[in-house]
Specification:
The chain is an alpha/beta fold. It has two domains: 122 residues, Response regulator (Rossmann fold); 133 residues, Winged helix-like DNA-binding domain superfamily/Winged helix DNA-binding domain (Arc Repressor Mutant, subunit A, Orthogonal Bundle). The protein has eleven helices and twelve strands. The chain has a five-stranded parallel beta sheet, with helices on both faces. Helix 4 links the parallel strand 4 and strand 5. Helix 1 crosses helix 5, helix 2 packs parallel to helix 3 and helix 7 crosses helix 9. The longest helix has 17 residues.
């Protein structure tokens, strides 16, 4: 997701950009203190969301928003200003929200809940999403990926369960394939790589001699959001984790213990 922040006072720009980064840590954010520079950047590359001040000098935020909307009608515009008098104009041109300074992470998170163009959901659906709570499943553009073989899917689940740690091939073979022949792992790995490449997600794998892993930062996943303590993530876990895989039980017990501190769980 690409976001721009525009504010002509450097200190306020730095503050705004930091608050947006806190609310959307995975976003690509570009900060500008000049609306002409912001517009030049937008003309070169699509922008999904813009946080704009109103008073920007020669070109105010309302005019900049109109130009952004002309280029990208589905760009969500959120005004961040100390002037309440422009609110009517802002919403007339299709702004998603109008935040009064001082800008806080909480105000931004609230604005993200009411985006006019559902930017976050739209971007998410264009990428891979992995669900671990309940039955393990991989989604692409909002639909389950059916091309994974059963073994390739379980191999990916095991790598996700390890949350980015590199896993020895021997451990994978013993745990996932019940110590069957090496060919089981080779075939599963081949299908995993092929299917990920078909959906443009081949870069999530870490491959080294005799070891495999995944890049956590490349995947949107309910389990990772829970581990990272992202807003609302604690409500994602409902007491079930990778239900179809017996080897996932230790992680399930840890999740259960962390969600209910009074539970006495021995792992």
């Amino acid at each position: 997701m690409r976001i721009i922040t525009v504010e002509d006072e450097y200190t306020l720009l730095k503050h705004l950009t930091k608050r947006v980064q806190e609310a959307l840590p995975d976003a690509d954010i570009l900060a500008f203190d000049d609306p002409d520079d912001a517009l030049a950047s937008i003309q070169e590359r699509k922008t999904d969301m813009a946080f704009l001040d109103i008073e920007l000098g020669d070109m105010n935020g309302i005019e900049l928003a109109k130009r952004i909307k002309f280029l990208y009608p589905e760009c969500d515009i959120i005004f961040c200003t100390g002037y309440s008098s422009y609110a009517t104009q802002a919403f007339d041109i299709g702004a998603s929200d109008y935040l009064m300074k001082p800008i806080t992470k909480e105000k931004i998170e609230h604005a993200l809940s009411f985006l006019r163009h559902n930017t976050i959901q739209r971007i998410t659906e264009e990428k891979i999403y992995i669900r671990c709570f309940g039955e393990f499943e991989i989604f692409y553009k909002g639909e389950p990926v059916a091309a994974f073989t059963k073994r390739a899917k379980e191999l990916l689940a095991y790598l996700v369960d390890k949350a980015g740690a590199l896993c020895d091939s021997a451990d994978i073979k013993n745990t996932v394939f019940y110590n069957n022949a090496d060919s089981y792992l080779r075939v599963a790995k081949k299908n995993l790589e092929k299917t990920l490449a078909e959906i443009g997600a081949e870069d999530i794998l870490i491959k080294s001699w005799g070891r495999l892993g995944i890049k956590r930062e490349k995947i949107k996943c309910d389990y990772f959001e829970y581990l990272d303590g992202k807003p609302g993530s604690l409500n994602l876990y409902k007491g079930a984790y990778m239900l179809q895989y017996g080897w996932a039980k230790p992680t399930h017990l840890r999740l259960k213990a962390s969600s209910d501190p009074e539970t006495d769980v021995l792992i």
